[in-house]
Known about the structure:
Elements: H1 13-24, H2 28-37, H3 47-60, H4 65-78, H5 85-104, H6 106-115, H7 124-133, E1 139-140, E2 152-155, E3 161-164, H8 175-185, H9 192-199, H10 203-211, H11 222-230, H12 262-273, H13 286-291, E4 308-319, E5 327-333, E6 336-342, H14 344-349, H15 351-356, E7 359-368, E8 374-383, E9 416-418
Helix pairs in contact: 1-2, 3-4, 5-6, 6-7, 10-11
Amino acid sequence: DVLHKTLGVPLFQEQAMKLAIVAAKFTPDQANGLRRAMATFRHVGTIGTFERKFIERMVERGYDVEFAESCFGQIRGFGSYGFPESHAASFALLVYISAWLKRRFPAAFAAALLNSQPTGFYAPAEIVRCARDNGKVTVLPPDASFSHWDCTLERNEKGEICLRLGFRQIDGLGEEDSHIISHERGYGYHGFADFVRRTGLSKRALVTLAEADAFRSFGLDRREGLWAVRRLPDDVPLPLFAPRATPELGAETIAPLPVMPLSEHVLADYQTTRLSLKGYPTQFLRENLKAEGIAACAALKDMRDGDPIRCAGVVLVRQCPGEGTTVFITLSDETGICNVVIWERVFRQFRKEAMGSRLLLAEGKVQKSPEGVIHLMAERLIDRSRDLKLLSGDAVPKHKPVHRHPRDVRILPPSRDFH
């Protein structure tokens, strides 16, 4: 009767209290003391006293000791995460509303999540990716001619609602500078020179926008934008050059700039905006990884339970629930995600790789339930972060890059770790 509503599994704190009252004849005050002690299961607390009292009273009432221990074991099993039934109802309502919004208004849902960062497990790159892949949302990059501080919604030429990334996605650009851009925009800027003159932004802010590739609407890609900004006079010019530091510069004839490889664009996007709409870092390494027999994340869904697997991806999330040493890692590549489970024995052996890698290779076996839940049960971990240094050319060679960008190869933003 106590657990009928939840099909025999205790989920709510009220059930633990009622179980103690019905089965062990606890008083309401004693049952409330048990509820308060449940949070101390993992620490030194008073729960031992309640355990003895619970089991002894059930035995005195004629229950088998094994059954009494099993009843208390159920309470112990959910003690660290149990919550009131009212909390569960509220949470269920939030989940339903969120799922409804995500299904029917994916662009607005993604925009709201991005505007609320940082929150939850998933980084902006994965929120945008989910909106594009599952919600079929067209996502537009941050742009000096269209973006505001927050991510916004706008219609394209087809009348479709699109998600426009806001300036908040650009690391290093202040909110005040963003508002200046929006306020001065009016009916639009007439090119880069007009933008610079009307906004009066500092050179540092202009460099930040150029590095984020936010001048595309002016016909300038990342490299061309940086060149245009570098030609501008310094905010505070040296005295010797002050007479020549005028806003209007004469026309120059310059040699054409080399085209920036797509892989460098993607890496620079991640460094400046924490995501890229142009590609995914692992897609430029796929040929090399495939030659080594390393599968893409999407390949797991076609494998059978128990199949051996080698899978590599960017580390999105590390989780170590409670005080155990079982670690759950989410890997991501251009095809999807892979959930890796690392048991204590493996974690002890590969702790450095598990906790320090940005690009991780996991070797092990596929665990696939009849319902289709898939995990990679890791037996060996290898840090492949060094492969990210190869992202300095469109065509990545098998051993080393043909050339390197003048700047150091940038490292991807850190994962989100919960432990």
